[in-house]
Amino acid sequence: MSDPAPDVEVAEAVHRTAEDIGSMEIRGAATIAAAAAEALGAQADASDADSPAAFRAELRAAARILYDTRPTAVSLPNALRYVFRDVDGRTVEDLRESVHTSVAEFCDRLDTAQSDLGRMGANRLRDGDTVMTHCHSTDVLACVETAVEQGKSLSAYVKETRPRNQGHITAEALSEMGVDVTLIVDSAARRYLNDVDHVLVGADSIAADGSVINKIGTSGLAVNARDRGTPIVCAAQTIKLHPETLTGHTVDIEMRAEEEVVDEETAADIGDPTVLNPAFDVTPPRYVDAIVTERGQYPPESIVTLMRELFGESTSDPWAEP
Ligand code: RUB
């Protein structure tokens, strides 16, 4: 995507948020969505535009910079769309205020959606159950946390999730909740699936056919879980539904730097192999038992009805030039 026109001012805070999302200082689909919305609020605050048109051009340029950071989590463009939808006003002041109202409403809805989803997911978990997790998903953690608050005692096998080890964040969060945590390397997952009652994963995007796009390794885990007969549940707020897949678009899978997999020196020592580092993969709906959203639990194949209801058949790209 093109850079903003040189005369359009974008706030330093927007550039900082974009850098933090790109470097994964800010990561996870829900967290990215909230940060992107808040960055639009920061842009509105910082703007000294002298006309509504100039204000809108700045906001679009900010959204474009945020949109370009990571391609897979649809929560990011969905957040930008949500904020833009309600931006209205005849003066710069009115516009600024409407951005703030919209950002606050969006962040409130994210929080509410996550706790509603947590209650639905917790209903699946029974006292004494063992779960297995992959990566770090705040939607998954919301389910476990609610179950623990309901007095259920839970154990967890936590996959470390190479190459970035987000499993460590999950391990810490679950331990703080009082869950009995066992950390395992990714390749040990199948070995322990017989001891697991539920595999719980999040999502960066959910396609119209019910495919779950999540951290690399999710699809292999799901196939193994199906083979072992262990139910696999995806916890995902509706902000993860990818409306463009309704019209045949596919979800971009982000490729990240080789250095996340192997440092330069080690790579040189082992003959400089080609290194591939896809950040996400696609789990077909037949390997997923249920998608738990704040609107209830869905078999993956029927998520399309919810997607149509919430998004309709067309989407806007508010970051694009009019
Ligand atoms: C994070 C990841 C998470 C989803 C859902 O990948 O795959 O499972 O984003 O997270 P990365 P949440 O670490 O590359 O961002 O439930 O918090 O939205």
Q: SSE layout and pairings?
A:
Elements: H1 12-22, H2 29-46, H3 52-67, H4 75-85, H5 92-124, E1 130-133, H6 138-149, E2 155-159, H7 167-177, E3 180-184, H8 189-192, E4 198-201, E5 205-206, E6 212-215, H9 218-228, E7 232-235, H10 264-269, E8 280-283, E9 290-293, E10 296-298, H11 303-311
Parallel strand pairs: 1-2, 1-4, 2-3, 4-7, 7-9
Antiparallel strand pairs: 5-6, 6-8, 9-10
Account of the protein in words:
With 322 residues, the chain is of the alpha/beta class. The chain has two domains: 12-116, Four Helix Bundle (Hemerythrin (Met), subunit A) (Up-down Bundle); 118-311, Rossmann fold, CATH 3.40.50. It has helices at 12-22, 29-46, 52-67, 75-85, 92-124, 138-149, 167-177, 189-192, 218-228, 264-269, 303-311, and strands at 130-133, 155-159, 180-184, 198-201, 205-206, 212-215, 232-235, 280-283, 290-293, 296-298. A seven-stranded mixed beta sheet has the order 3-2-1-4-7-9-10, sandwiched between helices. The longest helix has 33 residues, at 92-124. The relative contact order is 0.13.
